[in-house]
Amino acid sequence: MRYDTPILFRRLVIGAYDADTGNYADDTYVDTKVYGSVMDTNTQTMNLVYGGIKQGSLTIHVQNHVDIAFDQLIINGKKYRVDYTRRLRTKQSFIVSEVQ
Fold this sequence. Notes:
Elements: E1 5-13, E2 17-18, E3 23-24, E4 28-40, H1 43-50, E5 57-62, E6 72-75, E7 78-87, E8 92-98
Antiparallel strand pairs: 1-4, 1-6, 2-3, 4-5, 5-8, 6-7, 7-8
């Protein structure tokens, strides 16, 4: 298994209130890059997680546990949300689906 695909764990940071101007600062994103193994989700796993076949579903393995807070994943410029995660002894796996 090759851990060669860059995965961005993206977290939305809400802009802080500025009491002097009365405005809120712009929202920003904080990205954390982790390399992982990305593959298509097999049919048996899709039936267990989704109850049927779902287009745009991927299975991701990262070598260590991901202990950061994140809202979405970016893989090859596409946004994904986590539908299922499992922490194993030395790695963590995610089943994700594409978000429009």
